[in-house]
User: Which sequence fits this backbone?
């Protein structure tokens, strides 16, 4: 055991957030900076979407400053 080599298949943060989240009705799921219990309930995928949205918002704030 130990840390995986670079050649091993490791889940990348980008893999889970390539597809937008949608509701059961097919509508886009709005991800807010505060997050939601629904995102947490989605597990890894929801948390990664929330994390990426927060980073996007923070970067936008830095760009507008």
Assistant:
């Amino acid at each position: 055991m130990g840390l995986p080599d670079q050649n091993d298949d490791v889940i990348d943060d980008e893999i889970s957030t390539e597809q937008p989240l949608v509701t059961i009705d097919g509508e886009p799921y709005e991800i807010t900076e505060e997050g939601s219990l629904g995102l947490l309930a989605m597990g890894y995928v929801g948390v990664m979407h929330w994390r990426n949205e927060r980073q996007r918002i923070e970067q936008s704030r830095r760009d507008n400053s």
